[in-house]
Amino acid sequence: MAPVAVVIGAPGAGKTTIGGLVAGLLGVPFVDTDAIIEAEAGKPIPEIFIDDGEDAFRALERSAIATALTEFSGVLALGGGAILHEGTRDLLKQHTVVYLSVELSDAVKRVGLGTGRPLLAMNPRATLKYLLDQRRPLYSSVATHTIATDNRDPSDIADEVAGLLK
Ligand SMILES: Nc1ncnc2c1ncn2[C@@H]1O[C@H](COP(=O)(O)OP(=O)(O)O)[C@@H](O)[C@H]1O
Ligand SMILES: O=C(O)C1=C[C@@H](OP(=O)(O)O)[C@@H](O)[C@H](O)C1
Ligand SMILES: [Mg+2]
What we know:
Layout (H helix, E strand, L loop, with lengths): L4 E4 L6 H12 L3 E3 H9 L3 H8 L1 H18 L3 E3 L8 H7 L4 E5 L2 H8 L12 H19 L2 E4 L5 H12 L1
Parallel strand pairs: 1-3, 1-4, 2-3, 4-5
Helix pairs in contact: 1-8, 2-4, 3-4, 4-5, 6-7
């Protein structure tokens, strides 16, 4: 078994939102690895970062992704930092990977004050700029499809993604 598609991109790209809409359009299940991690840890992501640290979160993330890539057959959304791990990028090369790209200005608007995203808690705009610069080449390196999301409605983006996957 393998996911119908894996959705990647920066925080605020719309992975969780669009992934759910695409799954609905295709009539398949949706899961977000952040939700799997929270269920396994028994606490929300900001608490995992505070209590256990980012490295512990990344370890849970690697394991949740490796399992989902072999056992889940719907639309799978990843967290924005999942592609930082080389082993995860290697695993993704066997899959249909939809990269939702976003420019800084739309990402900033969408994440707001960064609530629920511990990496963005201090200075969302400056941190997002750094993350986007660091990660764009990594997202592109594993993407089989790239969709720009700026100034577009989620339903419009989801229609395009579902169309690509049919
Ligand atoms: N294309 C879009 N246009 C406007 N707002 C969006 C769009 N996609 C997502 N959002 C909003 O931006 C926020 C972040 O979306 P989310 O799906 O959680 O992104 P991600 O999982 O990539 O971090 C949510 O409030 C969501 O409703
Ligand atoms: O960019 C990151 O490193 C992270 C993004 C988050 O997911 P979203 O991209 O869905 O916000 C979540 O996995 C965690 O807070 C770390
Ligand atoms: Mg998300």
